[in-house]
Design a protein that fits this description.
Chain A: The chain crosses the membrane at residues 7-26, 363-382, 389-409, 415-437, 458-480, 486-510. The complex is a heterodimer of chains A (526) and B (352). Chain A is α+β, with helices and mostly antiparallel strands and 526 residues long. Chain A contains 13 helices and 19 strands. Chain A is elongated and about 110 Å long. In chain B, a hairpin with a 2-residue loop joins β2 (78-84) and β3 (87-94). The chains are: A alpha+beta (526), B alpha+beta (352).
Chain lengths: 526, 352
Amino acid sequence: MKVRSWRFYAVCVALILAIIYILPSFQPGLWPYKTINLGLDLQGGMHLVLDVEVEKALESTMERRTYELRDQLRKERIRYTSVRQLPDGSIAVRLADTADANAFSEFHRKEFPDMTMRRHTVDQDIEFRFSISAEEKAHIEKMATEQALETIRNRIDEFGVNEPDIRIQGERRITIQLPGIEDPERAKDLIGKTALLEFKIVDDSYDVQDALDGRIPPGTELLYEIRRDAFGQETGRIPYLVKRRAVLTGASLTDARVQVDSQFNEAYVSISFDRQGARQFERITGENIHKRMAIVLDNNVYSAPVIQDRISGGSARITGSFNMESARDLAIVLRAGALPAPVRIIEERTVGPTLGAESIQKGLLSMMVGGGLVLLFMAIYYKGAGLMANLALVLNILFIASALAAFGATLTLPGIAGMVLTLGMAVDANVLIFERIREELRLGRSPIAAIHAGFDRATLTILDANVTTLIAALVLFQFGTGPVKGFAVTLCLGVLSSMFTALVMVRLIFDFLYDGKHKPVTQISI
Amino acid sequence: MQIIKPGTNIDFIGRRKAAFILSAAMILFSLFSLILHKGPRYGVDFAGGTQILVAFQNEADAGQIRAALDQTGIDNATVQESREGQSYLVQIRTIQTFDSESGILTSLPRLLYETTGFPAEILSIDMVGPQVSQDLRSQALYALFYALLFIMVYISGRFEMKWMLSAAVAGVFISVVYLFPQIMQNVFHISMPIPMLILVALVLTLAAFWKLGLAYALGASIALLHDIFITVGLFSVLDIEFNLPIIAAILTIIGYSLNDTIIIFDRVRENLASRGKKTFAAILNQSINETLSRTLLTSGTTILVLITLFVLGGGIIHDFSRALLVGVVVGTYSSIFVACPLLLLWHKKQGL
């Protein structure tokens, strides 16, 4: 038997690769390969699943279209009695004069070709209903999710988290992994904020008390400012009656940063507008001198200063009851932009750093104790061959660990359990081979013939037995999330590497020790 | 060293009636417990809600903890205490979920400190919304079903060379299980209960495999279902929660138990080739005995490491390794006493 067979080279290549990939995990920066990623359950951190409420994005798109439609009709001098949104999301237009119907059709073709229009007769009146196609709806929803992902990614980047993992799951969910995060509640707050910034003019011509009693004039709405004390506890709510339509939104912002008022030593957020926004801001402030302008974030009023003069230069400040931290977070969300739709946290898993460190410790301890017991048992039971199996077992751990590093896979607590379990199951391939060799020896074969027959016959059995475990592990990988996936990965790697070590490496050692060339083999230690 | 002496010939197949009674008793017991407990006890992953693990340095009073919870607005919480090493652990479970605006989770450590007088550290929070828990539940069932089907195809292919036939059957069932709920949802606006659907599909699949004579796959998969059912039943008897790691454990049991079954079947196939005048029952017995040494060794080492995990692993690993321990023991038993007798039964039916 030639020792320098393909097995020899395969084992050499595997060993070299394993060492190359595993070393950075012990000595970071040795070469630019990745270290083993620790899962959130081991290093502590937060896992979130957000549901993007895409139907809200659809709603606001249609709302914007309604405004556009009204503006355009006015421009084209087509008179209408009403333009309103229907509960199903479509926009209904009633013309003042049915004679305008033809002009209106022309208007539709020219200005809003992406919406389909249908004629309906309601109460002997002709109503034109605009709606968008199912594909367009799906597109808006998809865009909303993608845009939400981008926005959240920007916010987290600015917040400063090491190696966050943010991705879309399914159609409208976003999963976020924030390893090692220290203040999970604050991060959640930052991620979950829609951050829709709007400037709305306060309507002082009506009495707020009337509105509070339920008489809200058309075109206006009631919003509140929440006052908080230094500990963040709510101390009171101040109602404002504001014009429903925002005069300017956060979309025209270019920058937002925290500054400290030298006079009152209070933190505030200064914002700057782009050129168009600056012009608009100048015009609005000019038109509304001595009125109040409410600065509204997610339907909460932050402050409502009285406009003293026309403000040019394109910058403004948001004041309110801020501390440095909340001002900083506000600046971050304003810079990163608003979410196209509100998000809702539907799954959250937070692991503190203490628990993670403890889990690693316990996992490693049980691996060492369990592994040690198996090694001892194999050495006693199979003597020389048992030692070979033990070498294979130790290398198995090395192969699994380096494969985890090479594929950038994540080691989780169940993953460690998977590795420990592999220790128990990995001896199976060796046990099958050794038992078979013993059987062949009992049948009276020569040692070398027994080894060959043992390996050959056990190979198929090992393959069959392991493929089934592999199937279960792959399904588990496909279905699992987080920790369970980590378990599936180590189980897969464990099965593959135990097959490799048993069928290739242990065989190589047998072939090397009992090659029968130099001296006849009369006995094997098994 | 040898555990099983060469030439050992235990009449396993002859004891199949006793084994059948034992299996039936275990299954009935499981069923009884499941009915009594109204199904498996779902943990936070599958039932939804919030689970908070808090560590105190000293033993805090449960009544005071409850008082703190009442103040924060966490209703109907169950509080479970345990001691691990130096620290005193308190697990709080509720079916509520919280958004960040409520600020409940932020203020919890402070309130706990104020009421109990001991500093509290939040070790972990798991919050699962109702939609997610429902998704996880059906995903877990789909995973079990798919794993089972793929494995049945593999066994039928390898042992009876019926790759195409078994793949066709599995393909039909997978597409039915995948498409049927969608059609019901989109055309008739009826949402299918997934557990029912999968149960029916499973029974029909087994019936189809029986009808088509795919005996090896049938024997192996019934042995598997036997193991899963008894593990689930035992969990119900011991009142242990079902969480995601337990599903991982169950899928691993599937892999492990099959491993065992296949190694015996493999030997059966080999011995059938040089059958002589032996009866099928004798071949089965011979095969089980020849592989017995390996069966006991592998189960032994696996159980050895599982016990270490069970004792030293702590926390989540505790329940996980317990499920696997039960599964490995039952799996080893079922390979010998369930899968093989089923193979014999089918052979007898065929008059072989």
